[in-house]
Amino acid sequence: MFRYLHWMLTFLRKIRKSLIESGSARKYLLYAIGEIALVVIGILIALQINNWNEGRKTKKQLIDHLENLAIDLDEDIAEYDEKYSHHHMRFHSFIYLLDLAGYHIDIYEPFPDPERPWEKHKELYPYPDTFNIDFIKFAYNWMDHGYVSTKLSRTAVEEIQNLGLFSQIRNEKLKKQINDYYKYVDWIFGEAIIQNYQRQAQELGIYLRDQYSIINIDITRMDDPIGFLKQHKDVRLKLRSVIDDTYYHTLEMLRTKKKAEELIQFIKDELRITIPNQ
Predict the structure, then answer these.
(1) Quick one: pLDDT at residue 12?
(2) In the chain, what is the greatest distance between 2 CA atoms, to the nearest angstrom?
(3) I need a labelling partner for 196 at 20 to 30 A (CA). Which of 7, 23, 164, 262 fits?
(4) Are residues 203 and 111 in the same domain?
């Protein structure tokens, strides 16, 4: 831009010098008006070119960050899948304990099987429907410490916000979808909420310690671990509360994964429009 203006001014100075030397006041006045007009036009053109270049840079930057956001969401989905498998196994193991104790519960909507069984205990999948001491031990062991935090990636969305790129998104539906997703994530996986979940997961273990002077793993060493549930209605009721919480966590993994998948599709659609032939 400045190189162009310097060249123009140098060229005009030569013409002005020639007119002054010729002594024609009228020609010089017309020249002066023309010079001003040309300089103004030149500045406007240069500014337009500069704005166009800046616009291209901003657009490229936004595209890069939207692509990064889609990558972050893919990582979130992998996290949801892992935690879904975890809670899915816990939920079915607790239902299994009550079934063996003769207390069948059928009020819950069935979940789809996880695409990948929980890696930590995949040898226990598929879930048994008859007496299986290993699955019984697993269920008791995880009654009071089964909730695990969901770690999500927020790098891309924070960069979009910090760089002021959010206002550059022209698709209002996409902006709303991004806002809705992260509001939902904050609501479901906020720090205070997580602490409450973890506390709830520990309550049954605390109850067993205070009421019966045992910890949950002690039950697995009894001659009849299922008989303990049959004999103690209070423990069954406490376990029902754990099942309710676990069902909720499992359901939320499905819901939040679906929201992440929908947001990825919104981003892909936007990029397809922004980058033709993508």
Answers:
(1) 56
(2) 120
(3) 262
(4) yes
Handedness of CA 246, 247, 253, 256 (dihedral sign): negative
Residues 112 and 176 occupy one common structural domain: yes
Rounded-to-integer distance, Cα 83 and Cα 128, Å: 21
229 and 133 belong to one structural domain: yes
Q: What number of residues does the chain have?
A: 278
Among the listed residues 269, 272, 258, 263, the one whose alpha carbon sits nearest the alpha carbon of residue 69: 263
Find out whether the peptide bond into 126 is cis, omega within 30 degrees of 0: yes
Ordered DSSP codes for 228-262? HHHH-HHHHHHHHHHHHHHHHHHHHHHHHHHHHHH
For residues 155 and 108, membership in a common domain is answered with yes
Q: How confident is the model at residue 273 (pLDDT cuts 50, 70, 90)?
A: confident
| Residue in this structure with the two tokens 């069935």, named with its chain if needed | 110
DSSP 198-214: HHHHHHHHHHHHHHHS-
Residue that is written with structure tokens 């140098």 in the block: 10
Domain-located, residue 57:
no
Residue 266 corresponds to which tokens in the numbers above?
Answer: 């919104």
**Do 70 and 122 belong to one domain?**
yes
Query: Are 75 and 39 members of one domain?
Result: no
Is residue 171 in a domain? yes
Q: What is residue 145's predicted lDDT score, i.e. its pLDDT?
A: 76
Structure tokens at 19: 């007119």
Query: What gap in Å lies between CA 114 and CA 81, rounded to an integer?
Result: 7
How far is 270 from 242, CA to CA, in rounded Å? 42
Residue 93, judged by CB atoms within 10 A of its CB (0-12, 13-18, 19+), counts as buried
Which residue in this structure is represented by tokens 């397809």? 272
pLDDT value at position 11? 56
Whether pLDDT at 255 is above 70:
yes
Domain extent for 32: 2-47
Side-chain-side CA neighbours of residue 211 (13 Å): 12
